[in-house]
Protein backbone atom coordinates (compact mmCIF):
# COMPACT_ATOMS: atom_id res chain seq x y z
CA UNK A 1 0.00 0.00 0.00
CA UNK A 2 3.05 2.21 0.08
CA UNK A 3 3.21 2.31 -3.68
CA UNK A 4 0.62 5.02 -4.16
CA UNK A 5 2.39 7.17 -1.53
CA UNK A 6 5.75 6.66 -3.27
CA UNK A 7 4.08 7.41 -6.54
CA UNK A 8 2.47 10.54 -5.10
CA UNK A 9 5.86 11.68 -3.70
CA UNK A 10 7.49 11.10 -7.06
CA UNK A 11 4.78 13.07 -8.76
CA UNK A 12 5.20 15.91 -6.23
CA UNK A 13 8.96 15.95 -6.86
CA UNK A 14 8.38 15.99 -10.55
CA UNK A 15 5.98 18.89 -10.15
CA UNK A 16 8.58 20.72 -8.02
CA UNK A 17 11.23 20.17 -10.66
CA UNK A 18 8.89 21.41 -13.32
CA UNK A 19 8.27 24.65 -11.31
CA UNK A 20 11.99 25.10 -10.74
CA UNK A 21 12.72 24.56 -14.39
CA UNK A 22 10.07 27.07 -15.31
CA UNK A 23 11.57 29.69 -12.92
CA UNK A 24 15.07 28.99 -14.19
CA UNK A 25 13.96 29.43 -17.77
CA UNK A 26 12.22 32.70 -16.96
CA UNK A 27 15.12 34.07 -14.95
CA UNK A 28 17.64 33.09 -17.57
CA UNK A 29 15.77 34.94 -20.29
CA UNK A 30 15.38 38.10 -18.21
CA UNK A 31 19.07 39.02 -18.31
CA UNK A 32 18.96 38.48 -22.05
CA UNK A 33 16.24 41.11 -22.44
CA UNK A 34 18.11 43.38 -20.05
CA UNK A 35 21.21 42.87 -22.11
CA UNK A 36 19.30 43.68 -25.25
CA UNK A 37 18.02 46.87 -23.67
CA UNK A 38 21.51 47.85 -22.66
CA UNK A 39 22.78 47.48 -26.18
CA UNK A 40 23.91 50.91 -27.39
CA UNK A 41 20.90 51.83 -29.46
CA UNK A 42 21.30 54.07 -32.44
CA UNK A 43 18.83 56.91 -32.08
CA UNK A 44 17.95 56.93 -35.72
CA UNK A 45 16.39 60.38 -35.94
CA UNK A 46 19.17 61.99 -33.96
CA UNK A 47 21.85 60.31 -35.98
CA UNK A 48 20.22 61.39 -39.21
CA UNK A 49 20.01 64.95 -37.97
CA UNK A 50 23.61 64.86 -36.89
CA UNK A 51 24.73 63.45 -40.20
CA UNK A 52 22.78 66.01 -42.19
CA UNK A 53 24.15 68.77 -39.93
CA UNK A 54 27.67 67.59 -40.65
CA UNK A 55 26.86 67.49 -44.33
CA UNK A 56 25.47 70.97 -44.31
CA UNK A 57 28.58 72.19 -42.55
CA UNK A 58 30.78 70.65 -45.16
CA UNK A 59 28.92 71.92 -48.21
CA UNK A 60 30.54 75.33 -48.15
CA UNK A 61 33.17 74.86 -50.75
CA UNK A 62 35.64 77.55 -51.60
CA UNK A 63 35.38 76.43 -55.20
CA UNK A 64 31.71 77.30 -55.36
CA UNK A 65 32.57 80.98 -55.51
CA UNK A 66 35.23 82.80 -57.38
CA UNK A 67 35.49 80.09 -60.01
CA UNK A 68 34.93 81.07 -63.62
CA UNK A 69 35.76 79.29 -66.82
CA UNK A 70 37.84 81.18 -69.35
CA UNK A 71 35.76 82.43 -72.28
CA UNK A 72 35.80 80.49 -75.52
CA UNK A 73 37.78 82.17 -78.29
CA UNK A 74 35.57 84.66 -80.09
CA UNK A 75 33.01 84.72 -77.26
CA UNK A 76 34.86 87.01 -74.88
CA UNK A 77 33.01 89.74 -73.07
CA UNK A 78 34.97 92.49 -71.32
CA UNK A 79 34.47 93.97 -67.92
CA UNK A 80 36.73 96.46 -66.19
CA UNK A 81 37.08 96.75 -62.44
CA UNK A 82 38.49 99.89 -60.86
CA UNK A 83 39.92 98.84 -57.51
CA UNK A 84 40.21 100.86 -54.29
CA UNK A 85 43.59 102.20 -55.39
CA UNK A 86 42.11 103.35 -58.69
CA UNK A 87 43.91 100.67 -60.66
CA UNK A 88 41.95 99.29 -63.59
CA UNK A 89 41.65 95.60 -64.39
CA UNK A 90 40.18 94.78 -67.77
CA UNK A 91 39.14 91.15 -67.91
CA UNK A 92 37.87 88.84 -70.63
CA UNK A 93 34.99 86.81 -69.24
CA UNK A 94 32.20 84.50 -70.33
CA UNK A 95 28.51 85.25 -70.58
CA UNK A 96 26.69 84.24 -67.41
CA UNK A 97 29.56 84.88 -65.00
CA UNK A 98 28.65 87.21 -62.17
CA UNK A 99 30.83 90.08 -61.04
CA UNK A 100 31.57 88.55 -57.64
CA UNK A 101 32.90 85.34 -59.11
CA UNK A 102 34.88 87.25 -61.72
CA UNK A 103 36.45 89.56 -59.13
CA UNK A 104 37.36 86.74 -56.77
CA UNK A 105 38.72 84.56 -59.55
CA UNK A 106 41.10 87.38 -60.42
CA UNK A 107 42.07 88.15 -56.80
CA UNK A 108 40.36 91.49 -56.73
CA UNK A 109 39.32 92.74 -53.34
CA UNK A 110 35.65 91.81 -53.09
CA UNK A 111 34.61 90.04 -49.90
CA UNK A 112 31.32 88.38 -50.90
CA UNK A 113 30.64 87.57 -47.25
CA UNK A 114 27.37 85.70 -47.81
CA UNK A 115 28.75 83.73 -50.73
CA UNK A 116 26.56 85.38 -53.31
CA UNK A 117 23.20 84.72 -51.70
CA UNK A 118 22.14 88.35 -51.63
CA UNK A 119 22.35 88.60 -47.86
CA UNK A 120 25.08 91.18 -47.38
CA UNK A 121 26.40 94.18 -49.23
CA UNK A 122 30.09 93.38 -49.34
CA UNK A 123 30.01 92.81 -53.09
CA UNK A 124 28.81 96.36 -53.70
CA UNK A 125 29.97 97.80 -57.03
CA UNK A 126 29.28 101.15 -58.65
CA UNK A 127 28.51 101.02 -62.35
CA UNK A 128 30.43 103.84 -64.00
CA UNK A 129 28.12 104.42 -66.91
CA UNK A 130 24.45 105.24 -66.54
CA UNK A 131 23.61 103.78 -69.95
CA UNK A 132 25.25 100.49 -69.03
CA UNK A 133 23.40 100.53 -65.72
CA UNK A 134 20.09 100.95 -67.56
CA UNK A 135 20.80 97.84 -69.66
CA UNK A 136 20.85 95.65 -66.58
CA UNK A 137 17.76 93.89 -65.31
CA UNK A 138 16.39 95.90 -62.41
CA UNK A 139 17.50 94.83 -58.93
CA UNK A 140 14.85 92.80 -57.12
CA UNK A 141 13.56 93.59 -53.63
CA UNK A 142 16.21 91.48 -51.88
CA UNK A 143 19.01 93.25 -53.69
CA UNK A 144 17.49 96.65 -52.99
CA UNK A 145 17.19 95.78 -49.30
CA UNK A 146 20.86 94.86 -49.15
CA UNK A 147 21.91 97.86 -51.19
CA UNK A 148 20.23 100.07 -48.58
CA UNK A 149 22.86 98.79 -46.14
CA UNK A 150 25.80 99.51 -48.44
CA UNK A 151 28.27 102.26 -47.65
CA UNK A 152 28.56 104.93 -50.31
CA UNK A 153 25.35 103.97 -52.08
CA UNK A 154 24.93 105.70 -55.44
CA UNK A 155 22.26 105.84 -58.13
CA UNK A 156 24.16 103.20 -60.09
CA UNK A 157 25.07 100.86 -57.27
CA UNK A 158 24.58 97.12 -57.68
CA UNK A 159 25.53 93.96 -55.86
CA UNK A 160 28.23 92.23 -57.83
CA UNK A 161 26.88 88.76 -57.13
CA UNK A 162 23.57 89.69 -58.75
CA UNK A 163 25.01 91.09 -61.98
CA UNK A 164 25.60 88.46 -64.65
CA UNK A 165 27.52 89.28 -67.76
CA UNK A 166 25.58 89.35 -71.00
CA UNK A 167 26.37 90.59 -74.49
CA UNK A 168 24.55 93.81 -73.64
CA UNK A 169 26.99 94.41 -70.79
CA UNK A 170 30.12 93.89 -72.89
CA UNK A 171 32.47 96.74 -71.97
CA UNK A 172 31.00 97.24 -68.48
CA UNK A 173 33.10 99.29 -66.08
CA UNK A 174 32.48 99.05 -62.33
CA UNK A 175 34.23 100.62 -59.37
CA UNK A 176 34.82 98.87 -56.08
CA UNK A 177 33.84 101.24 -53.27
CA UNK A 178 36.55 102.24 -50.82
CA UNK A 179 34.57 100.75 -47.93
CA UNK A 180 32.01 98.01 -47.39
CA UNK A 181 30.15 96.87 -44.31
CA UNK A 182 32.48 95.14 -41.93
CA UNK A 183 31.20 91.65 -42.65
CA UNK A 184 33.27 88.61 -43.36
CA UNK A 185 32.47 85.18 -44.73
CA UNK A 186 32.85 83.77 -41.19
CA UNK A 187 29.86 85.87 -40.06
CA UNK A 188 27.65 83.66 -42.20
CA UNK A 189 28.90 80.31 -40.94
CA UNK A 190 26.68 78.53 -38.44
S1 LIG B 1 28.04 88.49 -51.76
FE1 LIG B 1 26.58 88.97 -50.26
S2 LIG B 1 25.13 90.07 -51.40
FE2 LIG B 1 26.62 89.64 -52.87
Automatic annotation (TrEMBL):
A Pfam family assignment: Fer2
Region (Disordered): 19-49
Any GO BP: P450-containing electron transport chain
Ranges annotated as biased composition (Polar residues): 22-49
Keyword Iron-sulfur: yes
Keywords: 2Fe-2S, Iron, Iron-sulfur, Metal-binding
Gene Ontology CC annotations of this record: mitochondrial matrix
Protein family (similarity comment): Belongs to the adrenodoxin/putidaredoxin family.
PANTHER family: FERREDOXIN-2, MITOCHONDRIAL, FERREDOXIN/ADRENODOXIN
Protein name as annotated: 2Fe-2S ferredoxin-type domain-containing protein
Amino acid sequence: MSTPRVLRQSLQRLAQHARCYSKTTTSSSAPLRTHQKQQPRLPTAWSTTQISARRSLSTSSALQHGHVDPPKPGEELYVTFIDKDNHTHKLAVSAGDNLLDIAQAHDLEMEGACGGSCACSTCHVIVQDQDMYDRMPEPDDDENDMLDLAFGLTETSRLGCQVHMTKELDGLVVKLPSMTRNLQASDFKS
